[in-house]
Design goal:
With 129 residues, the protein is mostly helical. It has helices spanning 2-13, 16-19, 22-45, 50-53, 58-87, 101-128. It has 6 helices and no strands. The longest helix is centred in the middle third of the chain and has 30 residues, at 58-87. The mean pLDDT is 85.
Length: 129
């Protein structure tokens, strides 16, 4: 999370989102992975929750984690919209370069892809133990 926060600040300061538009995809991928890792930790390693989730099927766990990742992604898109419309008042030509519904869906897809990669890695490592 610290890496993502610092990367976000550096990208904004040096206008990297305008120079290299593909950085947005990478940031959403890693953001989705970080959200999934946080949910994995909370689901399996938090003392209050882990006892009730140990026997859930993998499909249910995957749906719960990816659902959380999608929720975080949607909230982030609302944040981008609020910044663009109400704070910078540039109507989609500002800090985050919101362009269209396609851009929003691409961002959420990248979030889910990062979350799926984290879930896959978690189950892979768990199987090795």
């Amino acid at each position: 999370m610290i890496f993502l926060f610092i990367s976000q600040i550096i990208s904004i300061i040096f206008s990297l989102y305008w120079r290299f538009p593909w950085i947005d995809n990478i940031m959403h991928f890693w953001g989705g992975a970080a959200a999934a890792m946080g949910m994995i930790w909370w689901t399996f390693y938090s003392a209050k929750v882990s006892a009730s989730t140990k026997n859930l099927p993998k499909l249910y766990i995957t749906i719960i984690i990816l659902g959380f990742v999608a929720l975080v992604g949607v909230f982030w898109e609302f944040y981008e919209l609020i910044v663009d419309k109400f704070i910078t008042k540039n109507n989609y030509i500002s800090l985050f370069q919101q362009g269209s519904l396609l851009d929003t869906l691409k961002d959420i897809f990248a979030d889910l892809l990062g979350g799926a990669a984290a879930v896959w890695r978690f189950f892979y490592e768990r199987k090795k133990q």
